[in-house]
Design a protein that fits this description.
Helix content: over 70%
Order of helices and strands: HH
Number of strands: 0
Number of helices: 2
Distance between the termini: 214 Å
Shape: rod-shaped
Strand content: under 5%
């Protein structure tokens, strides 16, 4: 009987050890299940975060493309404005040159006009002087003719008297 008691004691000990191992393994399995569910939730959250980041990256890429298009348009406009500015500068230079030429021409015309006016006034003064001198000569000749002997040939020539008028 001792053997039976030892066997029963041994079997109770083995069963206790087996029960302990089973309980211990069940606890480990339940902890692993909890960790597995936690890890699954973390993976799901991280996947959602990755999807959100991909969406944000896609949005940013679209806005970057729009900004690049606008930048290209602005570069084209800038080039057009620079070209237009250069053309306007050349046009302005041409206009300034033309204005200077026209100003010189107008100044020359004014000088010529003043010269013509002074010439005309000088001419009219000269005509007046000529008329006054002719009048003086005519008056002097009349005064001389009053004293000249018209019977002589030289006297008649001097006074412009012909024989018929005598």
């Amino acid at each position: 009987m001792k053997l039976a008691i030892a066997l029963v004691g041994l079997s109770v000990v083995v069963m206790g050890v087996l029960i302990f191992q089973v309980v211990h393994q069940e606890l480990r399995l339940s902890h692993l299940k909890v960790r597995l569910s936690e890890n699954s939730e973390q993976v799901t959250r991280k996947e959602e975060g990755i999807v959100a980041l991909k969406a944000k990256i896609s949005e940013l890429q679209k806005s970057l493309d729009e900004v690049n298009k606008k930048m290209e348009e602005l570069k084209k406009k800038k080039a057009e404005i620079e070209k237009s500015s250069g053309d306007m500068g050349k046009s302005l230079t041409a206009c300034v040159t033309e204005k200077a030429r026209l100003t010189r021409t107008q100044a020359h015309k004014c000088t010529l006009s003043a010269g013509v006016i002074s010439f005309a006034s000088a001419k009219s003064k000269a005509q007046e002087n000529i008329q006054s001198l002719k009048q003086q000569i005519s008056d002097r000749d009349k005064a001389v003719c009053a004293f000249v002997d018209t019977t002589k040939e030289e006297g008649r020539k001097l006074c412009g008297i012909t024989q018929e008028t005598q």
